[in-house]
Model the fold of this input.
Amino acid sequence: MTAVEEERVVPAVPETPPRAAGLIRTAWAFPQAKVGTVLAGVVVLVALLGPWLGPILTGHTTTDFAGKPFKPGGLMGTDGLGRDVLTRFLAGGTTLLLYAVLATALGIVLGALLGMIAGYGGGWLDSLLMRGNDVLLSFPQLVIALLAIAVIGPKGWLLVLVIGLTHAPRTARVARQATVSVRNHDYIRAAEMYAVPRGRILLREILPNITGPLMVELGLRLTYSIGYIASLSFLGLGIQPPAADWGLMINENRIALVVQPWGVLLPVVAIAVLAVGTNLVADSLASAAAGRTREDRG
Amino acid sequence: GSTVAAAVPSGPPRRGGTLRVGVTGGGASDTLDPHIPATNPDIARVLNLYEPLLLRDHDYRLQMLVAESLKSSPDARTWTAVLRQGIRFHDGRPVTPADVVATFRRITDPKDPKSGAAGLSMLGEVAATGDRTVEFRLTSPNSGFDDLLGQYSLGIVPADFDVKRPIGTGPFKAETFTAGLQSTFVRNEHYWRPGEPYLDRLSLINFADDDARINALLSSQVDAIDQVPVALVDVLRSDPRIQVLRSETGTWLPFTMRVDRPPFNDVRVRQALRLVVDREQMINQVLSGQGRVGNDLYAPFDPAYNRQLPQRKQNIAEAKRLLAEAGKPNLDIELVTAPIQAGAVEAAQVFQQQAKAAGVNVRIRKIDTTTFYGENYLSWDFAQDFWYTRNYLPQVASGALPKAPYNETHWNDPEFTGLVTRASATVDPKARTELLHRAQQIEYERGGLIVWGFVDQVDAYQSYVAGFVPDRTGISLSGYQFRQVWLGTAEGGAA
Amino acid sequence: MTRLILKRLLVSLVVLWLVTLLVFVATLLLPGDPARAILGQQATPERIAALQHQLHLDEPVWQRYLSWLGGLFTGDLGTSTSTQGPVTTLLADRVSASLVLLVLAAVIATPLGLAFGTWTAMRRGRAGDQVVSGVSLVIAALPEFVIGVALIVLFATTVFRVLPSVTLTPPGEAVWAQPSQLVLPVLTLVLVVTPYITRMMRATMSEVLDSGYVEMARLKGMRERTVLLRHALPHAVGPVAQVVAIQLAWLAGGVVVVEFLFRYPGIGQALIDAVGKRDVAVVQAVTLLIAAVYIVVNLLADVIGILADPQLRTEALR
Amino acid sequence: MTTAMTKALEVTGLAVRTTAGRPVLRSVSYEIAPGEVLALVGESGSGKTTAGLAALGHFRRGLASGGGQVVLHPRDGEPVDILTLDDAARRQLRGNAVAYIPQDPALSLNPALRVGRQIAEVLETHGYAGAAGERVAEVLAEVGLPSDEAYQRRYPHQLSGGQQQRVGIAMAFACRPSVVVLDEPTTGLDVKTQALVLETVRQLTSEHGVAALYITHDLAVVAQLADRVAVMYQGDLVECGVADDVLRRPKHAYTKRLLAAVPDLGAEPAAAPPPDDAVIAARDIRMSYGQHKVLRGIDLAVTRGESVMLLGESGSGKTTLSQCIAGLNRGFTGTVALEGTPLAPAARQRSTDELRRIQYVFQSPFSSLNPRKTIAQSIEVPLVRLTSLSRTERRKRVAETLDRVRLRPDLANRLPDQLSGGERQRAAIARALVTTPDVLVCDEVTSALDVSVQATIVELLGELRRELGMAMLFVTHNIALAPEVADRIAVLRGGEIVEEGAVEAVLNSPSHEYTSELLATTPRL
Ligand SMILES: Nc1ncnc2c1ncn2[C@@H]1O[C@H](COP(=O)(O)OP(=O)(O)OP(=O)(O)O)[C@@H](O)[C@H]1O
Ligand SMILES: Nc1ncnc2c1ncn2[C@@H]1O[C@H](COP(=O)(O)OP(=O)(O)OP(=O)(O)O)[C@@H](O)[C@H]1O
Ligand SMILES: [Mg+2]
Ligand SMILES: [Mg+2]
Done:
């Protein structure tokens, strides 16, 4: 799933685009938004409190040895180095979450900026930016990551940068499309008539009116970032040992799936639940942005 | 051990059948060239296609193969090999001294030196001196030259050898070969050992991924696999369909400290870091107990291995004292690691954890294998390496002399070098052992290696496969010697 | 219309050229010496120098780019540094192996997704829709290796031991000679791709089914099936072509993880291997190949979109 | 059987509600005789379309029947209550016995099918007895369209709006239904096309004795076409009767309001202001979009305090011209002068004072206000950009202006989508007035609004002009507004001013044939 995405229902921008606040309120009316929030919320809580809770609950730190490797000591057994799986699991979500959030933020900000400039600027600027976008898009995300990590090494900032950058062209498309659909609205022309500076038009007139699609995009990108970082760790290219990290844990403990499944199951379930949760929220945002109300569905 | 004893084939070996072996590693660079094997599948292929003049056997003793005998002159400057009577290449041609001469010319070709060339730097000339005799004339005396010749990468090939027609004297002939994927072999009917090999056909399959290899074994897609991850040994042992082959080896995964770079140029720092290591814990955590502790010395199977030196144990207080004395109470060092071998990255992490106790902060820098062996290989300040079983002098020649090709620690100790040079020229075993013990003591006291243990080799095969025996060389699956392997009934029962 | 298509074609060519430039530069940045990478621990300075010369690594960069670009036109993708043979021979079998995987996945997932999508769009809000939509939403969120590992546990190693978990292909034999080993990789890809097609199809069809002309067709008294086949489905052609294109393009790049997991001898594995080995020519070839697939497939989708839209199609008539 | 002949459709106690339970129609009853046209009028959202579709036994997604009867008397057959039938039987009647003509033909014709095919489809679906091809040609001719093969092979997008609507009508009449439901079939068409369509409808219904339910909110159209009128208000039929009666003697308050809002051509024109020299003057304005010449040399001047109506059909270039004046178009030639000083073409190049003095009100209030800004914020923009007032002064000015356009102060902090269309347009006008301009350009400020709201805006503009004494260019396609808002009329056609003169003169003795045609076709009460 690292890259399957733009086909996501890009909501047709309705007559009056939903406000971010209004959008969230509408989205909240969908049951799946509540389920999604609860699922994602639980995982986020675990990720945030885990590093602090772990040692209290299990009496082990993430790096000391609780027993021999892959033995059923403690609650959830030990990992490939004999460290306590539960402690590492509890501590392992923070980085994933942090990187995913940072990468998403980077991608959205960059993409929205590019898309808005292209969409509002139009003409050759639009063509230039969007063709450049096409070039980036035609590189599979994973290949970019593979190359970048081979060049520079698996650094945290690089993961954020690479994932953020690969999100940017995809977000830019959405932002551009949304911008184009509001660009010709008279209120933009009115602002032009009052000689409002272009930068201000972008930020004050256009941006608030494309928050709907951008919110949806944000939700989706977050889901993809989570899966993406996990996938990179699975290939051994993500977060590096001895850090406790869910993606890495799967990679380290995958081999003993039959003997000590917890080392894989806990993070897999956490990632799956988090991804499903964010996806549910993103989906309800998309539905809300597309203007479907609950009543309509029922 | 397994609780349910599987029915293991017994009785006389049966001929026939195909053995499918899952081998770790390999890739697009795979080759059939006898003289540049790099990966495990390369080594496995080379060992079954070609034979050197002599080679280490399962017990790490030299065993004559293409040569019938190898004798040194008293000054250890001239070595004479007599070729085995009646030995033939795959195409039926007999092996002649000219072939041997050509083989060594190919290996030491200055324009394209092969892997084995580095170890043969003292080789001056190879000359055919009779129907079956070849003379190796050395530029400097070397009493361990037989050991240097006993390498799998020195396989004897015909004078007109072409890698497109990979002909040697090994038990199997090449049939097909796809780089990175798979190669198949058929029985060599001209093989000199009577009756061997038992198999009709051998198929070596590359596996990049541990999981895939294990899964292939469990789903019976292969008959044997090498390098079982230590964590899974218990699982496989409990499966009645599977036999686990565990071999004690002299394979070691040292930490390498550059003795010419701070902070490791201070011998107290090196000693402190050696004292920081809890070797038992290393064996337990990294190898799941599948190994033996080391004493910062290598070559444990060498008759000259110095067993009198006391076993070094973790001693945090002493380490702290040494560090304080060296003026580095809060040492902060970077350890470069890479997945160069199973357990390497894990050992780095355990070391990091252990070093904490002595107030040493170890930062792990994990890079990929290619980068590790890239431009900076042999110049990392603090890193790891990996060696198969070797005897002392060849290992010193490879890694502990100022001019050695793999001197990771930049070890350059005149006293040590003097002792080793004298020992190389000494033919009397007792006198030589004496010199070597002293050399080892120097390394034990001031060397740049932390040899925390020796890794057991664990392989696995289906219960219906017979003929695998433990092998000390460190090379998997009885040193990939499939000539002795045979298949019982596929149901896992014995005849 | 022809002008439109020609213009689109031209843009694609320019993009493709830019991609070659980018691919080349990106691979240049790969650290480490391929010669060292090939030789591994066995590298000696003499052997490295010999190999470097042999691989033309000592020529200036622009010369290497031009000769590489020139080679592309003649179907010569360069020499693999690790096999020291032509990249084309190295990749030929792998490309067809990957294609088998992709085509099978696409051939199964596309109709499945379209059918599910249409079906759920027609019964929006009902139980069937909610189940299919829910399940596809959940599956769509899962990273592909999670799906793959789950399938392996389920069907190969732990629960049922009915299917091979890895692909073993004897040389000279095609991957499809033993169809059972294709099942799990293909299934994984199908599970990854189908939810997206389903969801997109559902959205497209919902929109079309809510449109004025479909309502009008109903008001004309036409049967629901005729309405669907004649009035609704043709409008999904354009958008669906887009989705399928994106899925195909994704598959081309996304097989990497799946091929790695199932040890499938395709281009994805070749890529990982080549990046590790610094086999620049292979990295360039595979990346370019994947990018080209993306560009071509998108071009096709756009052309189909143009052809399916009577407004654009009849442009030439006016 | 005699009763059957006097009624083609009989609706009693029809109720419709949303699936969530909210009532949309409460209890609607009406009947239509063959050949009769019943006009169903009512404000937007009152349930007209819902009632119309119920006559075909169809409810949009999210709506469901809440009881009542819809009895259809097919030309040859027993009367049936369509609501009691199953899907298949309903399908049998739809398009055959009862047909529907949608509001927007552009959305209702399938863009991917040729128009001939779409008409033939109805015939095939209902097993038309004769040769379908002939009937298609025949019905196309009946609605006044070419019936040749080439025309039938066109796609909807290759037809004009009026032609599309007539194809829709042809489709409805193809099977010779006994009842047709026409849902505002002329909204969005210009007056001339509207007249043509209305003529077609009248002819077809009377010739073939078809009962027509004609949905509209334009009472002028009703006066021309309908035999009887039914008025809907919030899901109820509040008034129903003979057209003349209802229009002359409305009973329900809503009907009265509707009627009062209809502009009247016969009204007294406003008094002509004292002549003065031109405050804004356009000289030889030419502009084209690619090959398409939209303006072909326009000269137009407005003097201080004067109001000029720029009249023209859709696409004649009205918006283009007014935006040239406002500085919103770049690529035109010719000059726009403010009190004799030529202005730069683009707003960005004009000085703040010039910008301040010319203000433009956009056609649609639904898109001219940023949906994310409160009304006050939007109105404040020109003050921030074009004046140097302090924050408090600006606030004060905004409040004053809101008051001037009769907007309650508490609306100031609302977002546009919390206002009605009329209120929004007032806000947009307030934004234009806040800098006290000398020239106000109003681009069809009423056309996006409901009739009843239209009137109040026109009235407001008249008052403001008198109060503030500014010059006004009032752009419209509705000649009926002329007497109320303008001193002078300029008629724009095909990018040229074809006639110009005082309102009275033009209305009473138009010199250009287009103007006379317009006057003739404009429906009146
Ligand atoms: N599918 C639907 N689901 C729920 N409510 C609906 C639906 N369609 C219409 N409504 C509501 O029913 C009421 C009547 O709608 P209807 O379209 O019949 O009005 P109308 O008189 O035709 O308006 P207009 O003049 O704008 O066409 C409105 O309040 C509308 O919001
Ligand atoms: N941006 C544009 N690009 C190309 N053609 C345009 C553009 N804007 C307007 N036109 C064309 O210019 C002509 C005049 O347009 P304009 O908007 O001025 O008409 P109008 O009289 O205001 O019509 P309406 O009453 O529908 O608002 C029309 O034929 C229109 O199709
Ligand atoms: Mg309506
Ligand atoms: Mg206009």
User: Anything to note?
Assistant: Residues D 318-319, 363, 443-444 surround magnesium ion (ligand 4) (CB under 6 Å). Chain B is about 25% helix and 20% strand. The interface with chain C takes residues 27-29, 36, 38-39, 110-115, 117-118, 176-184, 203, 205, 207-209, 212, 215-216, 218-219, 221-222, 368-371, 373-375, 377, 405-406 of chain B (CB under 8 Å). Residues 1-6, 491-495 of chain B have pLDDT under 50 and may be disordered.
